[in-house]
Amino acid sequence: MFSDIFAFTYEIPYLLTLLLIIPLVGAIATLAMGGKRQKNAKYVAGVFSFVTMVLSVILMFTPDLSVYSESYTWIETAGVKMSYILSVDGLSILMVFLTGVLVFLSTVFSARESDKPHYFFALILAMEVGLMGVYMAGDYFLFYIMWEVTLIPMYFLISWFGGPRRHYAAIKFFIYTHVASVVMLIGIFAIVFGAATGGIADFSFEAVLAGSAAFGSTFQVLVFGLLFFGFAVKMPIVPFHTWLPDAHTEAPTAGSVLLAGVMLKMGSYGIIRVCLEVLPEGAQYWQPIMVFIGILAMIYGAYACIAQKDLKKMVAFSSISHMGMVMIAMACLSDIGIQFAIFQMFAHGLISAVLFMVAGATGHSVGTREIPLLGGLAGKLPLLAAFMMFGFLASLGLPGLVGFWAEFGIIFGFYDYAVSVDMLWLVIFCLLSLLLTAGYYLWAMQRTMFGRLTTKIDLSHIHDLSRPEVIALGAVCALIALFGLWPDLALSYLEGYSSSLALTLGVI
Amino acid sequence: MMFDSSIVTTIFAEFSPLAPMIVMIIGALVMPAVFFATKRKSAVAAVMIAVIAISMLFNVLMMVDGYQADYAGLFAYDAFAGVMILLFQIVAFFTALVSVSSSETTRMHYGAFNALLLAATTGMMFVATASDLITIFLGIELASITSYVLVAMKRSDPRAAEAAVKYVIFGGLSTALTLYGLSMLYGVAGTTNIEDIAIALSTQDFSWAFGIAMITMIAGFGFKIAAVPFHAWAPDVYEGAATPVTMFLGTGSKKVGFVALFKIFLVIFVAASSTAAFATEELQYIFAIIAAITMTVGNVVAISQNNIKRMLAYSSIAQAGYILIVMAVMSEYALASGMFHMFTHVFMKGGAFLIVGALITVGIGEKISDYQGLAKRAPFIAFAMTLFLFSLAGIPPLAGFTSKLFLFSSAIYDGGVMTQWVWLAFVAVLNSAISLYYYTRVVKAMYIEKGANAERIKIPKTFTAAIVTCVVFVIILGLFPQLIMDFCADAAAVLFG
Amino acid sequence: MFVEYTWLVPLVPLLCFVIVGFFGKKMPHGGGPLVIFGALFAFVLSLLISYDFFTSDAYHNPGYVTSQIEWFSVGSFQMNVGYYIDSLACMMMLFASFISTLIFVYSIGYMHDEGAKRRRYFAQVSLFLTGMLGLAVSSNFLEMFVFWEIMGLCSYLLIGFWGFNHPKGDDASDSASSAAKKAFLVTRLGDVCLMGGMFVLLFEFGSLDYVTVFDTSMMAAVDPNMIMLGSLLIFGGVIGKSAQFPLLDWLPDAMAGPTTVSALIHAATMVKAGVYLVARCFPLFTQNPEVMLFVGVIGGITAFFAATMALNNMNIKKVLAYSTLSQLGYMFLALGAGGYMMALGMQSGDAALMAAGAIGYTAGCLHMVNHAFFKALLFLGSGSVIHATGTEDMREMGGLHSKMKITSITMLIGSLSIAGFPLFSGFWSKEIVLETAMHAGDYGVEGYLFTIMWILAIVTAFMTAFYMFRMWFMTFKGKSGHGAEHCHGESPKSMTIPLIILSVFAAALGCILLFGFDDYITIGIHAGHFQVGSGHGHGLAGWLEDIFLSMYTYLTIALVLIAIAVAYVMYNKASVNPGKFNKNGSSWLYKALTNRWWFPQLYDQIGWKLGNGVAKGVEFVDTQMIDGTVNALSSAVVGSGESLGKMQTGNVRDYAAIVMIGVVLLFVAILALFYFMGGL
Amino acid sequence: MIPIEVYLIFAAVLFAIGAYGVVVKNNTIVVLMCIELMLNAANINFIVFSAFTTDVLGQVFVIMSISVAAAEVAVGIAILLNAYKIKGTIEADGLASMRW
After folding, report:
1. Domain boundaries, chain D
2. Is A183 at the interface with chain B, CB within 8 A?
3. pLDDT attached to residue A474
4. Which residues of C touch D (CB under 8 A)?
5. Where are the domains of chain A?
6. Which of A109, A485, B429, C531 has the fewest CB atoms in 10 Å of its CB?
7. What pLDDT sits at residue B415?
8. Measuring CA to CA, which residue among A434, A242, A476, A177 is closest to residue A346?
């Protein structure tokens, strides 16, 4: 834990609320930077996102996270009660940290954005509000609000700043994920009202958890399905993933970074936070299905990567593959599985940030991301090549980088599960996916950066990474290496949470 | 005490339950005189607003104070009436406020226009307070007949003329259906007082006459609320009428149908459900099916619309479908949620129509493509429109989301038991997601697409004021629904005894 | 006390990597001197540690020094990081750091023309050294695996060093990047198996620490089948990393990298990691004789196959690469045969058999060290030649002896050593390898397989001598080729001095066998646990007796001499035309050999079908079926909106009709509902 | 005494005729008349029920509804006049410009 290195014991009042308000104020302030002040938008956004990041880092250094929970009754009417509850625990702390860091770094990365920068940065900050809110919410009402709040900035990011097919991609993203959200909302209704006691349906996590003991098996199984669908689309899990490649392909780089780095995690976060915590019996029932689709996503995503021609689309499919890994980890329903599912979420958040930054930067510098048009660019773009190599290696699970530990733990947890169900051969799929992952990354590397220098495109205007881009990439890479060399730094946050959840699930 | 209804009772004595209506009626009577005396629209508008404000003040005083009284067994002021009257007053207020500067409303007959507006509102308020079939019928008719004229009172526009014809014919048809149903109901129950009907029916078995009464009343009220398949008039009339009037129809007139439905059906069925002889569930299914079809057709057809008023009309149809969930679920919580949704609908749909009206006034067309580049030309208007549309689509944390949250959740759970209407909730949420598609088209046109014209737009102040109010309420009701939801809950408690 | 600083051994090169990687641009020679210093430091420290260790009590009991701290935990399983020093680790550290130092020095000269790219080169080789040394001193499988993969990464990066902007043009870039990818992927296949093995061990033993896993009582408590599975999976990793049959195809391609890289990674050190791992896991592998049998057979087959492919290759580096494969095969044959006997001995409690097995262990390790030196020498020599002539094709060389005396002579020494010319290094180790293999054939049911392997190994020895001298003669003797004419003389001192040093070792190192090497590098069970070292070897007289009193020794020597003679006749005097034997290159065997027994084509086919073929299918499913369904759904909604909208004809009469139909439908619906719900 | 069903069926038939007219007639004046028919069918119902139950409320209702119907027709005719002035037709087919 960070707090073992340095314990930050000064209690900042309303820290969690500040984490929501600062980006919100920042978004408004940035939006005001229109017209001639456009140039300054990035500085305003930078300052606000930096402060948010600092606060989220402070949170990491806080030894006792429970001091920061805030709870106020918000709405109490007609038999329903919603509260404004913010809290951070082992599950969410890493995600909050990730959000804080990635938003700041994607702001830095996009410092060169010159078209309507005030909108651009305001949207990024607005998205941060939603993302932070999702991870800190302690009430289903707040949770769902924040969940949906993330959609709108992303929609605008894609459709304003996206590529040629941005309208299609944006609306597909918007509608598809919204459909999933509303199905999830039904599930939330079911658990909230099902757990209601004394005629009051309390939307807080705590109350629902307390009332969940009364859920019958059939109820759990059905409602798990609803919630799971909602979250699985967000993750996304095959076959509900097709919005993702399109969204990524068209989204601006910063949007992709946040989409893959933090937004996809909302899905798996939701599964753990809601499905597993509240509906353990449902989880037991759905376990084989989760395992199956997790494996499917893993292998399918990896194979799809091989076939992709667009670098960014390939990275998008690799996200699907890696989130499949998160899925099988969660499906183990064991402490190792949950611990490393969260860790993989964190790891993939960092790694996919690098990948999307690199893919985006390729598009900026070279003018195209089509792999068949590229080749031999490492000589012209050494920095980009180096970061791409680093990102690819991290993603394919090079030991010593954060991705490896996640995969190691996940597969071990899965091994444990496979032994318990007497189907050891299932592990082969995990190992196969590792191999395929290495395959598509290295093949892509070979075709883009190495080999014959391409003659298919005009190379006279290509330029290597700009300074802000290098800073952002360097910082993420440093984090990847830091947590890779010292995984315990992040893992220790999860131990308590995962083992207590595993107790609830009845499988240790 | 801050809210004290004694001032009302002092003035109106035994007519106190009708106090808000009386104020309106007086207003309606003096309005032409005011116009002829001053010949100025603004003076009329000022008086209008004053009248509505006074009426609203009385109503709020009574409502918050928990005033309850009955007049001659025909009208009863209670929490339900108070909430619905408030709703109608708000609608009238907005209509009056913007019609003064709208380019679509009549200039020559402005006094009459306002008088009719007040009369129509009074009719609606009558329905809200009515406790007898006769008063319900009269209220509806008062509201309807005046609105026919309101629709027609657009400056020599062929579309308005056509809309008015369609409206009057369909209004008549619905009146006939409703009246037929009421006559059968009267025949079955032998009385016209709703409470008495409920008591009478609770001891009866199902009869053919009752079935026919139900069917024709559903059809008749279904016309009012524009439920599929009785919705066909709505898009045409909404498109043809002057936009403030469209707003009045879409947010106010439509609710009259619901009030009548609630008044008649809920009271009857709640009373009836205590006796096993009476088949409530079948009719709940009928309503559920109508609700499902209505929201689906409304949303799906809205997708293909290019005229924004028509699109909003279809969206209104869909919203009616959502509110019909109340009739399917028939629980107190559902009713409270439904009423709350009606409120939020006033602000979000009303706001959207206001913007359309404002833009027509400044010369922008009704086509979605006319809205291209609006974000540059009128940032606030575009922003407000986005809020309204997203609220209609149920995007949190806006009012539409919160009210839908209440409404849809009522279809899932009722008093700790999972209801059989979960499928309806599913249909509703999926529809809600579909609706996002066509709302987003408008947002896209405003924000993403580039318009041919880039000059700034300045819209009339009254429109701005009304739109700002709607924006404020769309946000506030989203975040703090209890401001109105509490009253809705009280009101629902009244109908459910 | 130096042992406590073992962690510095991999760390110093790592620091060099970081420093050179970030700041190397401004350093002289791209940071080369710093990297050399790092390697030298590691070597000196290794010497001190080894001295420290061998003089300590721990050397005798328990035979290792280990220390670790908690790294992180997986559930209730604790993962540690630390060091584990025993004789084997000392040996690995010593030869790896020593050879690396020499090769780095050589690189200063060899890479002189690369300019700014040298920074990348030196940073990467330094990182590689970290991997190798870290592997040697790791205290558990997981830590070992980290370094194992770091080496794999460096191998990938360095093979692809010229993956872009190749001095010889785009085709060379293409093949370099392709070779790099192939190397990584094939080893990755092995690594994935190794990872699987680790999971098995972690699950069964609850820990990955060597101390725990190799504990005899622990091993006895675990299901032998799972140990077998784990062992085989670990050996899968070895097969990938050490390029054994059937994953041997990447190594020849890997010669696309700079020659120094081939020398360092693909001859002297990284490919030895597999041998090290088998030696390290000896306690585990010997739990099942079958595993060791498998190891030995794989080794024997590889030795033979790889040697055949070297017979007619014209590329000097490829010849050396095949030879590396073949020699690695020897090592695995030795370890496998020894382990087989040890396993049988353990099962039957036969101490003599176990002692015989221990000789295999010694043989494998000794051959590993010897091979490191002479193969590094040969590669560096070939690098010197390539540097001078600018080509790798031996047909374009020839007659270089006069121009490059030092290179020529040092390479001759290396060739003699690898060929097993009596009294040179390679001779000693190869003899005991062969002896172990033959010996193992006498035991167990499947022992006859080792006899076959022994025969193959003897044939391989003949072939080795032939192709090595074919190479030497073609390069340094005979007619001058096209490339040789470009040669402007001997390479710079920074290159020749390492050659000379290496040649001394290549010639004489093997003698350590006679002077107590097997006291240190042997394996046996002491006080109930496996211990490397502190054994009682045969001693000088024992070994001399063993080797020189066996008739098979003379058989091998004879074969080697004959092979050298044949090469001399064919390629130096050219009195016999080699084309006679292969129908001038048109015999099927010749083609099979030049096509590497069609292994690459086979792999390409399988890889392409399994990779790209399936991927195409997935892509089709994705865009057409899954996304197609999504799009179809959305257009169905939009389409139905349009057609439903058509019902809105605008005519009041139609509207009225709809209303009436609605009323009728309501009527029907109410009837139906009442009927179905039993209301009527 | 004539049973109540006869009156009710009569009213229903009247109602159906009116409904039929609304659906098939092109002239909107006739349509308005048909609606009057339907209203009157309901009125007959009221009267009949009132008579048979000797409850006076039904007759009150009828008086109300007749006046309402009168108002409605008045407004309707005015609107049709307006439409005729603007569009030159009062045929349903001619008043179908807004659709889809």
Report:
1. 4-89
2. yes
3. 93
4. 645-646, 648-653, 656-657, 660
5. 286-508
6. A485
7. 66
8. A476
Q: Which residues of B touch C661 (CB under 8 A)?
A: 229
Give the residue, C519 or A298, on which the prediction is more confident: A298
Helix, strand, or coil here: A477? helix
3-state secondary structure of B418: strand
Domain edges within chain B: 279-497
Same domain, C561 and C664: no
Residues across chain D: 100
pLDDT at residue B276 greater than cutoff 50 = no
Q: At what angle do helices C351-389 and C425-440 cross, to 10 degrees?
A: 140
Minimal CA–CA distance to A476: which of A298, A278, A233, A261?
Answer: A261
CA distances from C556 to C61, C433, C459, D64 (A): 39, 12, 9, 127
Q: Say whether pLDDT at C170 is over 60.
A: yes
- Which residues of chain A are under the pLDDT cut of 70? 507-508
Domains contained in chain C, number: 4
CB pairs under 8 A between B and D: 141
Q: Which two tokens stand for residue B9?
A: 């009772």
Q: Are C288 and C232 in contact (CB under 8 A)?
A: no
Does the distance separating the beta carbons of C653 and D26 come in below 8 Å? yes
Question: At C265, is the pLDDT very low, low, confident or very high (cuts 50, 70, 90)?
Answer: confident
Shortest Cα–Cα distance, C636 to chain D (Å): 18
Same domain, C262 and C404: no
Do C601 and C673 belong to one domain?
A: no
A421 touches chain B (CB under 8 A): no
With contacts defined as CB-CB under 8 Å, which chain D residues touch C667?
A: none
Touching chains D and B? (3+ Cβ pairs < 8 A): yes
- CB of C640 within 8 Å of a chain B CB? The answer is yes
Nearby residues of D74 by Cβ (< 8 Å), 6 or more positions away: none
Strand-pairing partners, residue C66, are: C84
d(CA A159, CA C160): 40
- pLDDT at residue A193, rounded to an integer: 87
Which residues between 323 and 342 in chain A have a beta carbon less than 8 angstroms from any beta carbon of chain C?
Answer: 334-336, 339-340
Write down the pLDDT at residue A508.
36
CB contact under 8 A, D19 and C660: yes
Q: Which of A20, A33, A80, A184 to mutate to test the interface with B (most CBs of B within 10 A)?
A: A80
Rounded to the nearest angstrom, the gap between the alpha carbon of residue A205 and the centroid of all alpha carbons in its chain is: 21
pLDDT score at B392: 93
C310 with C453, same domain? yes
**Alpha-carbon span C598 to B79, nearest angstrom:** 90
Return the number of other C-beta atoms located less than 10 Å from residue A174's C-beta: 27
**Mind giving me the DSSP string for C125-136?**
HHHHHHHHHHHH
Q: What is the mean pLDDT of chain C?
A: 86
Give Cβ neighbours of residue B386 (< 8 Å, ≥ 6 apart).
Answer: B443, B446, B447
pLDDT at A323: 92
pLDDT at residue B272 in the model = 62
Chain C environment of B300 (Cβ under 8 Å): 637, 640-641, 644
ipTM of the complex: 0.90
- The answer to whether residues C300 and C453 touch, using CB atoms and an 8 Å cutoff, is yes
Left if phi > 0, otherwise alpha if psi is -120 to 50, otherwise beta: which for C534?
left
In contact, B221 and B326? CB cutoff 8 Å: no
Q: Which domain holds residue C605?
A: 597-646
Same domain, C613 and C525: no
Domain D4-89 has CATH 2.40.128.490: no
Under 8 Å between Cβ of A19 and A128: no
Q: Which residues contact B314 (CB under 8 A, 6 or more apart)?
A: B235, B298, B299, B301, B302, B305
pTM as predicted: 0.92
Q: Where are the beta strands (DSSP E) in C51-139?
A: 65-74, 77-85
